[in-house]
Amino acid sequence: MEFSWSVLADPNTQWILMGCLLLGLMSGMIGSFAYLRKQSLIGDTLAHAALPGICIAFMLTGVKSLPLFFIGAFVSGLIATYSITVITRYTRIKADAAMGIVLSVFFGIGIVLLTQIQHSPNGNQSGLDKFLFGQAASMIHSDVYLMMGVSAVIVIACTLLFKEFKLLSFDPGFARGLGFPVGLLEQLLMFFLVMTVVVGIQAVGVVLVAALLITPAVAARYWTDRLGVMVVLSGVFGAISGVIGTLISTTTSNLPTGPLSVLAATTVFGFSILFAPRRGVCAKAIRRIRGNEAIRASERMREMQRQDVCLRKEESL
User: Fold this and answer.
1) Which runs of consecutive H residues, i.e. helices, occur in the chain?
2) CA distances in angstroms from 16 to 275, 297, 311, listed in the order given
3) Mean pLDDT of 173-200
4) Distance of CA 66 to CAs 194, 198, 205, 207, 275, Å?
5) Within 91-161, where are the H helices?
6) CA distance 103 to 46
7) Which of 65, 111, 163, 196 is most exposed by smallest CB count within 10 Å?
8) Is the dihedral of CA 192, 197, 200, 204 positive or negative?
9) In a 10 Å sphere around its CB, with 0-12 CB exposed, 13-18 middle and 19+ buried, how is residue 38 labelled?
10) Reported pTM
11) Which CATH number fits domain 2-209: 1.10.443.10, 3.30.365.10, 3.30.930.10, 1.10.3470.10?
């Protein structure tokens, strides 16, 4: 325990811990609405689509600048979301197929550009390969400040626009009938997803950032039927996953923080599957056992009643 406290006293570890906590919090909250809208693939699509934007930003500037990388990833993510909207609106292709197409095309372009950069004179110093799987240890205080700002915006937006996002998630047609700007709300929700993905790429990477969007939301769904509670629980599960991943990686050598955070979220999901009070496997098994016992008790009662009737008939004879 003393070793753990000494590790937490390190300022670099504190920044990483705060960054992963904030990333898990905002990913879980905004991911709840994406999950309910059956857009679980959208986070993965946006994460892979950010790679060409990062590569283009480096090719244009020639310097490794995280703010420029974030701008490039953000622009690339917005182009990807617009492409998905155009494909689904003007063709007969469904949303999941459109997201798969955009994901493959953008990630393919990103890999081609990344390979080209790696073979350039300054390619070895670019460090762009770290964005594939993430490197939370490279986060500094400016990155954490950016996460603080983005998480504050997302938490405030989810609070103020909760009713609108709730209608959008369950019945967008009814929301449109009530006069809500459904198109604007959809684009706003997609905008928040892009922001979350972009700030999370450095910690988790383009390959795994989608897991922090969906896994806490799915785990929270097992514990409640109320959307407000689900959003809060999802944010809490995401924050806990980030903290656990950071603590394990800092106390154990050569273990990456991002993948460990994803594994922690998966562990929370597995615990929810097993022990959630209503939808968990154990709860269902207990209800099944009690139901079978009630059926057997009812059958025994009917058998006793039948025997009692037979005895009365024999006595009357």
Assistant:
1) 2-8, 11-36, 40-61, 66-90, 95-118, 130-133, 141-160, 162-170, 172-177, 182-204, 209-221, 227-251, 257-275, 281-316
2) 31, 58, 79
3) 85
4) 16, 11, 14, 18, 41
5) 95-118, 130-133, 141-160
6) 7
7) 163
8) positive
9) exposed
10) 0.83
11) 1.10.3470.10
The answer on pLDDT for 3 being more than 60 is no
Angle (deg, nearest 10), helices 141-160 and 66-90: 30
Domain boundaries, the chain: 2-209
The pLDDT tens digits of the residues spanning 246-275 come to 888 888 777 788 888 889 999 999 999 999
Q: What is the pLDDT of residues 106-135, one digit of tens each?
A: 989 988 988 888 777 765 555 666 777 777
Out of 148-157, 164-173, 190-199, least confident range: 190-199
What is the distance between the alpha carbons of residues 45 and 50, in angstroms, rounded to a whole number? 9
Tokens of 74: 């953000």
